[in-house]
């Protein structure tokens, strides 16, 4: 690959966005977006994820910092001169035009020849499985079909980056799952960068090459879905991505952590001796054992049948709440043992940034290699 | 963006100024008439 | 059920009959009598003579001019209104002047445009010198537009408010400049409001008579002035009624023409 192909397609450098009323929605955010990948901006509403999308699309200008597209600053380039297209949350299809003219909109603006317009529009519609719908009115389409028209209308312009602003949130559950597969497949076939905004962590985990977890205008953590799921950097990320048990603990020394009144072997290191920490264990990593064989003993408080598994909630003697996902059932009021592997324990340092986390990870992994 | 907003405000202010001009003029005449009446009354007194 | 509904409808129907159907019927009835009370079609024959046809054409022409200028001024104003912070306050300010009596406002313009009025004073101070403003086409159209502008702004404003703002973002996103976005998305989608506004201006503008009289000084004679003259001055009620019947028919035709587009339009 040539150097220019490896250059990120989009780069944010300490980008801040404040509104006139003084509210800061984005705080000195920096990141890189590489070509041909599926990115997801994930976070609760008001975390700034949609603002990032608007800044890339050109609907808003940053208050400070630089946005690079293909190596050039594009802070003040108007939206209509950018090589990105957007699929809007409410699809924003033009109600006075039919399906064909909606998709042809961008091409007509470029004054493309009628024959070329027809070819491209039909190809785009075929791409999203809407062949034969050209003459339909927008009002005659279902939600899923409108979604596809919106995608066709965007990709027909051959953008380098496709922005998707919570495009699945208006669909019902079954259609949403279907569209997740389709979008992922579409991204592979097109080979362009997708930036997908959502507040749904399952969507993010299922589709992305890389996830940016956001909170209050900052990126908390970025990484592959498995990285973020297995190694959340803080309580917010652990809580936001999937269910988790988070309890207070103390790092006795490297590879030894104390919580719930006992000391356990673990795989984390790089802490000060006796440093207070938070530990995360995912509910599916806990298994039910007889009380005498368990590493922890809890009293079962409630149990819910979730289809694939039972969701059991119990309390240990120190008062910590533990959620267990198990195919075995328990009896409410019984005392049960919980077993887990050292690898299942994930230790989080208080107030650690992503860079500090990466540095520590690198440092103790090297020392572990030396041992 | 900001320049467009300023133009919009300026335009609206002109339109509304014209819209209220006759009413303002009527009030102006009314006030003048009152003053005139007061002066006349002053002369008679 | 049906009988019950009819009971509720009764006052409304009575109202309509008393103030709409009967007056119109009376006007139609009157239009078939000459000045001496004899039955005749002469009024309609007279209407087709060049004098009245010229009057009709000039009425339509002025009503057209007033509508076009109202639209040209009102559309940007309505657009700007939708972008303002305190929309409700601005709207109230817009409606407020229409509570002031029409005659009062027109008289105020006589003062403003008069030979020794405000505008001429300003023109003289600028060194341009006094101009004849009153009793010109300009002053007539200006004052008429002034009177009708709120009726044009309101429907256009409502249409613009109904417009989904993400459609504008979508057009920009697909490469459209500001002007193209307006031409291909904003204007077509607010066409219903524009039509409603044009109806609200054009139809009353056809039958203006007070402004014509006071501001245009009988230089401009429209069908409205003719009706007024026949009823109040020449006492030829038959002729006046015939012109009124023509105006009513014209209005119905205009409403049908501008209305048909709405039924077939795709609504969001």
Q: Kindly report the average pLDDT value of chain B.
A: 87
As a whole number of angstroms, the C-alpha radius of gyration of chain A is 24 Å
Instruction: Enumerate how many helices of chain B there are, as a single number.
Output: 1
How far is the first residue's CA from the last residue's CA of chain B?
Answer: 63 Å
Structural class, from secondary structure content of chain A? alpha+beta
CATH class category label of the largest domain in chain A? Alpha Beta
Strand content of chain B: under 5%
Note the main sheet of chain A.
6 strands, mixed
Oligomer: heterotrimer
Q: How would you describe the overall organization of this protein?
A:
The complex is a heterotrimer of chains A (371), B (45) and C (268). With 371 residues, chain A is an alpha+beta fold. Chain A has two domains: 222 residues, Rossmann fold (3-Layer(aba) Sandwich); 127 residues, OB fold (Dihydrolipoamide Acetyltransferase, E2P). In chain A, 28% of the residues lie in helices and 32% in strands. In chain A, the strands form four sheets. Chain A has a six-stranded mixed β-sheet, sandwiched between helices. In chain A, β4 and β5 form a beta hairpin. In chain A, α3 crosses α4. The two termini of chain A are 37 Å apart. The model of chain A has no long low-confidence stretch (mean pLDDT 90). Chain B has a domain of 26 residues. Chain B contains one helix and no strands. Chain B is mostly helical. By secondary structure, chain C is an all-alpha fold. Chain C has a single domain, classed as MetI-like fold (Orthogonal Bundle). Chain C is 77% helix and 0% strand. Chain C contains 13 helices and no strands. In chain C, α7 packs antiparallel against α10 and α8 packs antiparallel against α9. The chains are: A alpha+beta (371), B mainly alpha (45), C mainly alpha (268). At the A-C interface, β6 and α3 of A face α8 and α9 of C.
């Amino acid at each position: 690959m040539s150097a220019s192909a490896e250059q990120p397609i989009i780069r944010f450098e300490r980008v801040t966005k404040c509104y006139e009323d003084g509210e800061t929605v984005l705080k000195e955010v920096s990141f890189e977006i590489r070509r041909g990948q599926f990115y997801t901006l994930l976070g609760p509403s008001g975390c700034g994820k949609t603002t990032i999308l608007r800044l890339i699309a050109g609907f808003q200008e940053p208050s400070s910092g630089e946005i690079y597209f293909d190596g050039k600053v594009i802070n003040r380039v108007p939206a209509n001169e950018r090589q990105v297209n957007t699929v809007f949350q409410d699809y924003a299809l033009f109600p006075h035009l039919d399906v064909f003219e909606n998709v042809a909109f961008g091409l007509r603006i470029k004054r493309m020849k009628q024959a070329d317009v027809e070819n491209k529009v039909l190809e785009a519609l075929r791409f999203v499985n809407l062949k034969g719908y050209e003459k339909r009115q927008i009002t005659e389409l279902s939600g899923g079909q409108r979604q596809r028209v919106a995608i066709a209308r965007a990709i027909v312009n051959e953008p380098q980056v496709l922005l998707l602003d919570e495009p699945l949130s208006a669909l019902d559950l079954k259609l949403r799952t279907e569209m997740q597969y389709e979008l992922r497949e579409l991204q592979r076939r097109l080979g362009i960068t997708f930036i997908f905004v959502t507040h749904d962590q399952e969507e993010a985990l299922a589709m992305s090459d890389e996830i940016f977890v956001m909170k209050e205008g900052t990126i908390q953590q970025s990484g592959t879905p498995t990285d973020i799921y297995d190694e959340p950097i803080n309580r917010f990320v652990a809580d936001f991505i999937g269910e988790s048990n988070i309890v207070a603990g103390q790092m006795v020394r490297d590879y030894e952590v104390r919580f719930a009144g006992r000391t356990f072997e673990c795989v984390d290191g790089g802490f000060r001796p006796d440093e207070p920490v938070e530990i995360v264990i995912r509910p599916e990593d806990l298994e039910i054992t007889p009380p005498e064989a368990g590493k922890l003993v809890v009293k079962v408080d409630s149990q819910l049948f979730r289809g694939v598994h039972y969701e059991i909630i119990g309390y240990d003697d120190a008062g910590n709440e533990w959620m267990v996902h198990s195919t075995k059932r328990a009896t409410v009021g019984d005392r049960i043992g919980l077993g887990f592997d050292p690898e299942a324990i994930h230790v989080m340092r208080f107030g650690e940034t992503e860079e500090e986390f990466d540095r520590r990870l690198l440092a103790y992994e090297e020392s572990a290699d030396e041992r | 963006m900001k320049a467009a907003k300023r133009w919009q405000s300026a335009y609206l202010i002109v339109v509304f100024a014209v819209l209220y001009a006759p009413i303002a003029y009527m009030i102006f005449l009314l006030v003048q008439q009152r003053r005139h009446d007061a002066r006349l009354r002053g002369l008679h007194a | 059920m049906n009988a019950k509904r009819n009971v509720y409808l009764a006052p409304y129907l009575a109202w309509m009959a008393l103030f709409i159907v009967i007056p119109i019927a009376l006007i139609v009835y009157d239009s078939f009598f000459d000045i001496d009370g004899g039955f005749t079609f002469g009024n309609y024959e007279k209407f087709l003579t060049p004098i009245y046809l010229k009057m009709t054409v000039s009425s339509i022409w002025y009503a057209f001019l007033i509508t076009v200028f109202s639209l040209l001024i009102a559309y940007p104003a309505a657009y700007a209104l939708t972008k303002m912070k305190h929309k409700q306050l601005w709207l109230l300010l817009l409606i407020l002047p229409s509570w002031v009596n029409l005659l009062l406002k027109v008289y105020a313009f006589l003062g403003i445009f008069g030979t020794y009025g405000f505008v001429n004073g300003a023109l003289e101070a600028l060194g341009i010198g006094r101009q004849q403003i009153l009793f010109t086409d300009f002053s007539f159209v200006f004052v008429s537009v002034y009177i009708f502008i709120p009726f044009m702004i309101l429907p256009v404003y409502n249409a613009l408010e109904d417009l989904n703002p993400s459609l504008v973002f979508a057009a920009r996103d697909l490469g459209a400049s500001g002007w193209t976005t307006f031409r291909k998305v904003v204007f077509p989608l607010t066409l219903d409001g524009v039509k409603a506004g044009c109806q609200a201006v054009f139809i009353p503008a056809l039958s203006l008579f007070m402004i014509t009289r006071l501001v245009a000084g009988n230089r401009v004679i429209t069908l409205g002035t003719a009706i007024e003259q026949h009823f109040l001055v020449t006492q030829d009620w038959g002729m006046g009624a015939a012109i009124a019947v023509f105006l009513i028919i014209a209005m119905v035709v205009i409403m049908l023409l501008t209305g048909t587009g709405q039924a077939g339009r795709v609504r969001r």
